[in-house]
Structures are given as C-alpha cells and as structure tokens.
C-alpha cells in the first residue's frame, strides 16, 4: 500500500547557437512531460500528468536542471489536486530546480488545490548559481469550491550561490498548528501565492518594496531576489494579482 | 546560573525597546482583523506558531552556542519582509546595548562588533541568555512569550481592550507556549549536527504583508 512513486526529469542545455536543447525529458508514471512549441531561444515543457493526484501515500518528484546559456519554461496543463488516499499516510511532492550561470528558468505551474480529507506536503528546493535567472510561481488553493481544505504543508527553500536567501513554510488545514486561519496568517482567505524573481542585477540594484494590491506586496530579499506574497479569497483573484506583477516585470 | 536572571531578561521593562512594537497587531487592528479578545487570541496563536516558533528556535540555538553569523543568515532567509528585517535588526541592536550593560560578556562584544547595525533580535536574545548564565530552554521561553506578549499589550492600547482580558488570553495560550518552546529547543539542539537548515521556517503571509503596509504609513502608534 505504498502509493505511487514517480520522478520526472528535465535537463535543458544551451546548444551554443543561442537556442536550448532538452537532452533529458523523462516522464514517469502519472507525471508526463511534453515538449511544446517554444520561442526562438527558449524550450517549453508542459507537465500534463498528476492532475488528479497526488493521493495519500504517493511520492512524486519533478526535477529540472538548466545549464549555462539555456532558457527553459515549464508550465502545467491543469491544476494539481491533492486528494485523500486509501492509506493514512500523507502524500509528498518534491520539486528540485537548479539553474547554472547564464541559465534562465520560468517555472509557472498551475495551482495546487487541497481537497477535503487530503494530506500533502510539497517541498520546493531551488539552487541557483550567482548568474542564474529565475521566475517561480506557487499558488495554493484551500479546498475546491466552498469545500473545507485538507492538510497542506509547503516549504520553499531558495539558495543563490550556496547561500539560503529564502526559507519559508506554511501549513494549513486540519491538524495544522493553531492560528493558521486567524488574523496573523490567512484570516479566512482561501488562496495564497508567491512569485519569486531572481536576477543577478538585483545584487547591485535591489527591487523596491511595494504594496500593489490589498493583500499583496513585493519584497526584496536579503540576496539578489525578490518575492511577491499574496493572499486572496479564491484562486482566480489570486491569479489576477500575480499576473499583474508578472505583467509589470514584462513576463508572460 | 540563577533563575531570577530569566525574570530580568523576560521582563517587559527590560530596557530593550520592545514596548514600542506591536508585533503586527497595529496593522491587523487597522485592517479590522482584530476587534476584540477572541481575535487577539487567534492572532497571538498564529504568531506564536509561526514567527514565535522561528524566533524561539533561533534564540535557543544561539544560547546553545551555535555560530551567530550562520543563525543571522538563517533569520534573514526566514524574514522575507524588508520592514521586518529592519525591525528585527534594530531591536537586536537595542537588546545588545542593554545586554552588554547588564551582563558584560566577550561573546556579546564580538557579535556587537561584527554586526554594527544589529544582528537579528532572536540571535541576540539567545546570546544575552547565554551571557546571563541561562540555557536554550530559557531563551526559547523568552522568545515565545515575547511573540504573544507584545501584541497583547499593544492591543490593550490600540482597542482600549480590558487588560484583564488580554492577560487571560496569554494565560490560555500558556500550554501552547510550552509546546512551541519545546519544539524550538528540539530543533535548536539538532543544529549542531545538521546545520541551520533544520530550524523551523514557519511563515505567516499576513504578518509579512501587514508589516510592509504598516511601514508605509506616515503616522503610527507603534514602530512595527
């Protein structure tokens, strides 16, 4: 009763002519990767599996490794929905991203939705060289329409040139530490999201802190990166806020 | 070691500048998220299990002798809001001044020299506890109590809340303070073998966002 164990891998390399090749594109079980049409210098990959999982007991992992001079954009075809499994054990979803100097990764998956009775821990670990560029989006929606959420734990750890610039965890739903839905943490909001932007030029000129919606702000981190944190009543309104930030940075 | 030193360090009248800070309560009151004792309790509970746990683990690790510079980087990574980082360093500097005068200590002097603009407050708190002859558990208790005591006192002023009610909130939270302090000490103990990544990183999105909103106000009663 161990659940499904699957690891999908993407490796992107600069082809030396300004383009990006994908020497590694490994789907695994429910995690299916498809290369889609990209822009001139950028490879695009769509994660098409895992929409109706992970279930309790499942262990999913997705790894992307972007080499120097490569540009990779990864999206997903639909939201990932954490559902209750037949085991008491929780599910685990790990994302491991590495980007080398002069590499660029846009990691823009669809939201993660925590359905009633589910129990999922998501861990995202990002390792960037000093000259790497990254745009990362994370959205968590607590419950489907008017549904109580399951337990959802998420941790995001970002290292740049070996130094941790962001380490954040959030646990929501039944069994989470007290106060998660109270006025200090989510105050009844059902969607929470982050955008992380890492660029080497922020070392010289960091982004200015700014409030740009009722519950959303841009925060320069203690390192060459900035974080947008937003909470919203639902997933649609969260996406609208995060899209606004992406548009302002000219990222589509 | 003397138990009374813990009372000196944990006393709200210890001259370290904490009374000027609401721990995010002022922003939450203004936004209508705290209107009475029940909201105050939920606010304090959320703060305790996030910022309070992280601060307590950092303080306990510093009190146990972990490298303050490594802990300071860990505190930065766990504090995405620049307003909160600035506040934490300012409070760290004020606490450092008070602690050095109270418990003269070579380690405190060295950290003060290394961080002229202030190290993060929980790190200094742990070092102050160490200088006072206290241990990691004492430092964790100071931090968890501070994480709820500050907002409770501030809300009494902000909402003219009955001080008896605010104190009852703190008393009801006491068993949870015990559990959080215990968790903090357990992870702080693991730092020696596993490094600072083992420290908890629990975050509170509305505390971070609220701190940024609050820092942009032209007029406010509390500094944070």
Task: Write a brief caption for the model.
The complex is a heterodimer of chains A (252) and B (224). Chain A is mainly β.
Commentary on this structure:
The complex is a heterodimer of chains A (252) and B (224). Helices cover 6% and strands 50% of the residues of chain A. Chain A has 252 residues and is mainly beta. Chain A has one domain (5-248). Chain A is globular. Chain B has 224 residues and is an all-alpha fold. Chain B has a single domain, classed as Urease accessory protein UreF (Orthogonal Bundle). The chains are: A mainly beta (252), B mainly alpha (224). Chains A and B meet through β14, β17 and β18 of A and α3, α4, α5 and α10 of B.
Summarize the helix and strand pattern of chain B as letters.
HHHHHHHHHH
From N to C, what is the helix and strand string of chain A? Answer: EEEEEEEEEEEEEEEEEEH
Helix percent of chain B reads over 70%
Please give the largest β-sheet of chain B: none
The geometry of chain A reads as globular
**Counted beta strands of chain A:** 18
**Helix/sheet category of chain A:** mainly beta
**Category by helix and strand content of chain B:** mainly alpha
> What is the fourth-level CATH superfamily of chain B?
Urease accessory protein UreF
From the N-terminal CA to the C-terminal CA of chain A, the straight-line distance is 42 Å
Number of domains of chain A: 1
Radius of gyration of chain B: 16 Å
Quaternary organisation of the protein chains? heterodimer
Number of helices of chain A: 1
Under CATH, the topology of chain B can be stated as Urease accessory protein UreF
Write the layout of secondary structure elements.
The complex is a heterodimer of chains A (252) and B (224).
Chain A: E1 5-14, E2 20-26, E3 33-36, E4 43-47, E5 59-66, E6 71-76, E7 80-82, E8 91-99, E9 104-108, E10 112-114, E11 119-128, E12 133-142, E13 151-160, E14 163-172, E15 191-198, E16 210-213, E17 216-220, E18 225-232, H1 235-248
Chain B: H1 4-10, H2 25-30, H3 37-63, H4 68-77, H5 82-102, H6 106-114, H7 121-131, H8 136-159, H9 163-194, H10 205-215
Helix pairs in contact in B: 3-4, 3-7, 3-8, 3-9, 4-7, 5-7, 7-8, 8-9
